Structure formats: structure tokens, C-alpha cells
């Protein structure tokens, strides 16, 4: 009996893990921009304070960790996390990049989400063309995705 329960538990666990797809959150703007241009998808820049911002954590739990968002994100955007942690160590280059992006987009509060299109200039530099921004939207993934889709379709 114990063997049957063990096999059933392992089978069920494998099924549940397969059902939950993982998203790739990029932290390197250059690599994410290249991928965005290659796949012809906008970047979704998520400005967050991952280890201290309650609204950021709430947005992740209520929207970003849901199947509806996962499906939408894989089809529509390249995800970039621009994190401003207080207790978690962070590479100095990433800190500088995130600070520069915060200044460019004039982010004053968290969470802030910008949707942008990267474009390569004739000099080989990358310009970011802003489509629009949002933040926490109450109502779960459906309401948040509705707001994000309205930005992308402008």
C-alpha cells in the first residue's frame, strides 16, 4: 500500500510541476533588448523593490505568478526585472544599469511597469521607445492584462 501511495505521490508531483511553466526574467538590458528586436516583442520593464516593497510582492503573487500572465508574457513580451533591493546583494553593474533606467523613465514609486520597444540606431546604439506604463492594478491577472494590452495596442 505504501508503494502505491508513493508512486501516486511522485506521479502527481511530476504532473503539477509540468503544469507550472517558468518565466525568464532578464536582468541585462542589452541582452533583453537584442532578444526583443529579434523576436519583435516589446520589453516589459518591471521596476521593483523585491525584498521590501509590499505592492511589488502583491503584484507578483496576484498577477505575475498566475498561468494567465505566464501565457500572455510568453506570447507578447520580453520580461526585464529592474530591482532595487535593500537587503539582497546585487552586482554593481546591475545596480548602475537599474539606476540609469530609473532615471530615464523617471520612476518615483514601485511597482512601476513600462512597456517599451528597443530600436537600433545607425550608430549601433539602442534607443527605447516608450509605449506606456502601469503599476499595480487591482482585480487579478485579467484586469492587469487588460491594462497592459491597451498599452501595447496603442
Primary descriptors:
5-stranded mixed beta sheet, 6 helices, 21% strand, 154 residues
Give a description of the structure.
The protein starts with a helix and ends with a helix. The protein has helices at 2-19, 29-39, 54-64, 67-76, 92-104, 140-152, and strands at residues 25-26, 43-48, 78-83, 112-120, 126-134. The protein is globular and about 45 Å long. By secondary structure, it is an alpha/beta fold. It is built from 6 helices and 5 strands, in the order αβαβααβαββα. Strands 1-3-2-4-5 form a 5-stranded mixed beta sheet, with helices on both faces.
How is the topology of this model organized?
Elements lengths: L1 H18 L5 E2 L2 H11 L3 E6 L5 H11 L2 H10 L1 E6 L8 H13 L7 E9 L5 E9 L5 H13 L2
Parallel strand pairs: 1-3, 2-3
Antiparallel strand pairs: 2-4, 4-5
Largest sheet: 5 strands, mixed
As an assembly, this protein is single chain
Note the total helix count. 6
Quote the beta fraction. Answer: 15-25%
Give me the count of strands.
5
**From the alpha-carbon coordinates, what is the Rg to the nearest angstrom?**
18 Å
Give the uncertain stretches in residue-range form.
4-9, 11-18
Averaged pLDDT: 90
User: What is the 3D shape?
Assistant: globular
Beginning-to-end CA distance, first to last residue: 59 Å
Structural class: alpha/beta
| Helix-strand topology string | HEHEHHEHEEH
Can you give the helix content as a percent range? Answer: 40-55%
Spatial arrangement of strands, main beta sheet: 1-3-2-4-5
